[in-house]
Amino acid sequence: MGRTKKSRGKNRGKQRKRQTQASLADKHELYQRAVQEPEADLLLARKIFRTHFGRPPLIMREDFCGTALTACEWVRMGANNRAFGIDLDPDPLEWGRVHNLEKLNEEQQSRVELIEGDVMSTHHEQVDMTLAFNFSYFIFHERATLLEYFRMARASLRPEGLFLMDVYGGSGAQTTSEDDPRDCDGFDYIWDQYRFDPIQCNAVNHIHFEFPDGSRMKRAFTYDWRLWSIPEICDVLRDAGFSQTEVYWEGTDQDTDEGNGIFTLRKSAIDDPAWVAYVAAIP
Ligand SMILES: C[S@@+](CC[C@H](N)C(=O)[O-])C[C@H]1O[C@@H](n2cnc3c(N)ncnc32)[C@H](O)[C@@H]1O
Q: Which residues pair with 224 in a beta bridge?
């Protein structure tokens, strides 16, 4: 009896602890809502593939897949589409299994394979497209390591294949600064360029989330990246054996002067303090 009373008292104490919106929020859900646009990424990838090979791609590999939102979207987009998702970290993979994969019907689920593994050493059947989004390959700081990864990406592809990655830059990327909060319908997303070292081209960035009750999920995600330039990336891709590289550059919305989400093949571009682009490589 005494023990029961004591434990009840303990629980009441715990309940009194203030529950903030930040303490109740799920960082993977916030990340997906604030950062990812899998449909737009996949439509661009499919269009580039079709331009090169005159047919739609079917099998894709999502490197650094995290919660595998893109892999799951891919199988939803086409009845014959299949996807592999690869990530080192079991935590986002498990979250993705529960919240993304299990939202698909059984037949769709059977076309996705999630692999807990290193993109440097994970082998499976060759695919039409390998995708590396949200700058994940920037974790490779040394040219030799980036080259090794690009060689692996090339080996993952069929002869008719596409390796597509995104890249960001501009003078604004090479500063320490915290962006203004961006409203994401129920919470704010904050991109914090915490440190930039111009000698190493090393950027340490955090993502924070803020809530209407004033609470903050600080450093929900942290990235320690080498800021690779487009010519460096294309050089390394060539050294890895890719025969062709292309850059897809974002157009500008005339009213807002912001990016318009439309990426087209370009050979050169005018100066922009904060740009995002895609680099495509063909074996
Ligand atoms: C920036 S998140 C990308 C999440 C998602 N792909 C996206 O587009 O937003 C980077 C992910 O890469 C994973 N990662 C880092 N190094 C890796 C490696 N060598 N092999 C596989 N996954 C790796 C991390 O665990 C993390 O989930």
A: 204
Whether ligand 1 lies within 6 angstroms of the CB of 166 is answered as: no
Q: How far is ligand 1, taken at its centre, from the CA of residue 118, in Å?
A: 9
Instruction: For residue 183, report the distance from its CA to the centre of ligand 1, in Å.
Output: 25
> Which one, of 229, 235, 270, 232, lies nearest residue 249 by Cα?
270
At 233, is the secondary structure helix, strand, or coil?
helix
Domains and CATH numbers, the chain: 28-168+228-282 (3.40.50.150), 172-223 (no CATH)
Residue nearest to atom 20 of ligand 1 (CA): 118
Per-residue pLDDT tens digits for 216-274: 999 999 999 999 999 999 999 999 999 999 999 999 999 988 899 999 999 999 999 99
| Phi/psi of residue 213, nearest 5 degrees | -80, 5
In short, whether 224's Cβ falls inside 6 Å of ligand 1 is: no
Check if 269 has its Cβ closer than 6 Å to any atom of ligand 1. no
64, burial (CB in 10 Å: exposed 0-12, middle 13-18, buried 19+):
buried
pLDDT confidence of 18, banded at 50, 70, 90? confident
**In angstroms, what is the span from residue 99 Cα to ligand 1's centroid?**
17
In the reported structure, the alpha carbon of residue 203 is separated from the centroid of ligand 1 by a whole-number distance in angstroms of 17
**How large is the angle between the packed helices 143-155 and 230-239, nearest 10 degrees?**
60
Q: What pTM value is reported for the model?
A: 0.93
- Tell me how far apart the alpha carbons of residues 75 and 78 are, in angstroms, rounded to a whole number: 6
Beta strands 188-197; 182-183: pairing state: antiparallel
